[in-house]
């Protein structure tokens, strides 16, 4: 299982990374959330909005979501 | 009847009766202006941010891009890209992914610029502020000018054939087609999530709006009317270019600038001059240039800024000529 946060390096992306980290922690998955502030990666996935939560190379959440519960739900759905 | 009449009543009551500030004092004027305008604008923001959350759900920027490349548009794509620019939220940090993403999808450089020019100038928050402070007529004129600015600017930039001045690596990026399926959600869940998203947006910008209105209120209450008239009249031909050139390097969000601009217009600065200033502050800036330098060679950047600056000045003159 690979969980990544892609972003353009903007403050919102960093904040989103924190939210995802917290969600993964609360789910006890024991997975490191990788933060990749590279626009190229976003484009390669066919996306233009950031930040993006990527699980196993598949975009799961596009755009900022602030609620940990919602992020947890999405992670569970895609595990 | 004015739909905001109850808000006016409430703020009058709060400022003059409850806080017993005198109606004729500078403080009273500034204070009632502040209370009335902030309440009115926050009310409008809550509404429009909800609405925009709905729009964004059904029309994300990826979908707009796909729509633009779906067929040949014969020039209509400049208008479409500009119009799309008005409904996307824009922060300078999203300009790079948008720029590369549009080009990668095969959208012409000029059309990409149309989007890039209009996007920071018009967004839902700017529209609310404009409408709340200047009224609908000026708002519509402003939106039309911003779209024209994007269309004409993009068209000229396309004619100049500047593709070779885009950073080389941009052309090498290839994307896989990725369709993000939306999980089917119940309407009630969706409506709630729109509300949350809209409210989160409103909450984020309220401080900036309040600061902007606060400064506007101070100008409204304390600066004597006619102060600027001796210096900046619409007859002074240099006012527009100077206001524009001063503003180009500066950066501020539309949210903070519009209330200040409105207060200045009320004190006698010609609308076109103020508008040119505002468009240059919001649309072009040094920070944005630095970010865009990552994807553009210097020549392209200069063309982009140069042409947009000239067009903004033209809009300023037109407003000064025709809108009184």
Describe this structure in words.
The complex is a heterodimer of chains A (79) and B (324). Chain A is built from three helices and four strands; from the N terminus they run βαβαββα. A four-stranded mixed β-sheet of chain A has the order 2-1-3-4. In chain A, helix 1 packs across helix 3. Chain A starts with a strand and ends with a helix. By secondary structure, chain B is mainly α. Chain B contains 15 helices and no strands. The radius of gyration of chain B is 21 Å and the shape is globular. At the A-B interface, helix 1, helix 2 and strand 4 of A face helix 3 and helix 5 of B.
In terms of topology, how is this protein built?
The complex is a heterodimer of chains A (79) and B (324).
Chain A: E1 3-6, H1 11-26, E2 33-36, H2 39-44, E3 52-55, E4 58-62, H3 68-77
Parallel strand pairs in A: 1-2
Antiparallel strand pairs in A: 1-3, 3-4
Helix pairs in contact in A: 1-3
Chain B: H1 5-18, H2 26-58, H3 61-69, H4 76-87, H5 95-104, H6 109-121, H7 124-134, H8 136-159, H9 168-172, H10 187-222, H11 239-247, H12 254-266, H13 271-283, H14 286-292, H15 298-322
Short account of what is shown:
By secondary structure, chain A is α+β, with helices and mostly antiparallel strands. Chain A has helices spanning 11-26, 39-44, 68-77, and strands at residues 3-6, 33-36, 52-55, 58-62. In chain A, strands 2-1-3-4 form a 4-stranded mixed β-sheet.
